[in-house]
TrEMBL record:
Signal peptide: none
GO molecular function, one term: hydroxymethylglutaryl-CoA lyase activity
Keywords of this entry: Lyase, Metal-binding, Pyruvate, Transferase
NCBIfam families: PRK05692.1
Pathway: Metabolic intermediate metabolism; (S)-3-hydroxy-3-methylglutaryl-CoA degradation; acetoacetate from (S)-3-hydroxy-3-methylglutaryl-CoA: step 1/1
Catalytic activity, as annotated: (3S)-3-hydroxy-3-methylglutaryl-CoA = acetoacetate + acetyl-CoA
EC top class named in words: lyase
Family: Belongs to the HMG-CoA lyase family.
Organism: Kangiella koreensis (strain DSM 16069 / JCM 12317 / KCTC 12182 / SW-125)
Residue ranges of domain Pyruvate carboxyltransferase in the record: 14-286
UniProt-recorded name of the protein: hydroxymethylglutaryl-CoA lyase
Upper lineage: Bacteria, Pseudomonadati, Pseudomonadota, Gammaproteobacteria, Kangiellales
InterPro entries tied to this protein: Aldolase_TIM (IPR013785), HMG_CoA_lyase_AS (IPR000138), HMGL (IPR043594), PYR_CT (IPR000891)
EC number of this enzyme: 4.1.3.4
């Protein structure tokens, strides 16, 4: 039974942006076939997910696991949910070359990704933060001209694997730059999962000086087991979009030691308990997570999923 929350600060509905097929698999060392990725996407749709980041138009030399981006997009075109627009499939596009590939593949939503740390920006996309913003300008202009929505990411919002602590003001500066350029939503990534709730609150408060909380998403990796607590803190501040990854898949190729995103199953379990709507069927979601985990030869990294699977 879904209990209605008595905390008036919490939203009544949350948008989940599923990271599994992209952030979740980009760092996977073993090959994952295009067919398995597509089957995962089918199962996530069946579970009720409406925003599924499908792939990344990045260099296959840098991220080999995303090299089948053209095949993924070609297959998605035949999905009824892509045709009728009932499910969004955003894809990463770090530059104009990536955007052109995504557009040719029929993308209706793309995402540019910056960082709040200079060192991470260099390691991840081979340029400074300022250069990355310059690179995004023509991408966002071209997207606007084509009626394509653009999401923006800021990585390392609560810490950097190379620089340590990151000032909330720096996060705010980069988030503002993305929002001012025309990103409809800015996702704030705790890339290495080091944050704790008070730090998360301070960071959101700093960003909210420039970007309305209704336009923010939180993107927590669960390296230190703090993701759900951090998400709750962000929900209380008015953030109502959460990035998460089925079965807790993932890790970033340029963030050594970072584990996956918070598991979508754990997030949905918590939100169900709070009486917050997501439109996602937890049973089907757990099955989708079990499917991809079996393909990868391991158990889901989700407490809720493992507990529910054990009951079967
Ligand atoms: C950004 C680049 C491309 C710059 O890479 P670069 O080497 O600086 O680019 P370049 O413009 O000098 O070009 C070099 C070569 O790359 C090619 N190239 C150039 N652009 C593309 C493209 N779009 N797609 C495919 N190929 C491309 C280009 O054509 C050329 O090919 P060559 O002539 O040598 O054969 C590179 O650094 C890259 O691909 N990095 C990968 C970044 C990445 O995917 N990181 C992981 C995702 S971000 C993340 O996970 C964080 C997030 C979002 O989840 C939030 C969080 O948790 O914090």
């Amino acid at each position: 039974m879904v209990m209605v929350s008595d905390n008036p600060a919490l939203p009544t509905h949350v948008k989940i942006v599923e990271m599994g097929p992209r952030d979740g698999l980009q760092n996977e060392k073993q090959p994952v076939s295009t067919e398995v990725k597509l089957e995962l996407i089918r199962r996530l749709i069946d579970a009720g997910e409406k925003h599924i980041e499908a792939t990344a138009f990045v260099s296959p030399k840098w991220v080999p696991q995303m090299a089948d981006h053209h095949e993924i997009m070609a297959a998605l075109k035949s999905f009824p949910e892509a045709q009728d627009g009932s499910v969004w499939f955003p894809v990463l596009t770090p530059n104009l070359k990536g955007f052109e590939g995504a557009l040719a593949g029929g993308a209706k939503e793309v995402a540019v990704f910056a960082a709040a740390s200079e060192s991470f920006s260099q390691k991840n996309i081979n340029c400074s933060i300022a250069e990355s913003i310059e690179r995004f300008k023509p991408v966002i202009e071209a997207a606007k001209a084509q009626g394509v929505k653009v999401r923006g990411y800021v990585s390392c919002v609560l810490g950097c694997p190379f620089e340590g602590n990151i000032a909330p003001e720096k996060v705010a500066e980069v988030a503002k730059a993305l929002y001012d350029l025309g990103c409809y939503e800015v996702s704030l990534g705790d890339t290495i999962g080091v944050g704790t709730p008070n730090k998360a609150r301070a960071m959101i408060a700093a960003v909210a000086e420039y970007v309305p909380t209704s336009k923010l998403a939180c993107h927590f990796h669960d390296t230190y087991g703090q993701a759900l607590a951090n998400i709750y803190a962000c929900l209380e501040l008015g953030v109502a979009t959460i990035d998460s990854s089925v079965a807790g898949l993932g890790g970033c190729p340029y963030a050594p030691g970072a584990t996956g995103n918070v598991a979508t199953e754990d997030v949905v379990y918590m939100l169900n308990g709070l009486g917050i709507e997501t439109g996602i069927d937890l049973t089907k979601l757990v099955d989708a997570g079990a499917y991809i985990s079996e393909q990868l030869g391991r158990r889901p990294v989700s407490r809720a999923a493992n507990a529910l699977l054990a009951k079967k």
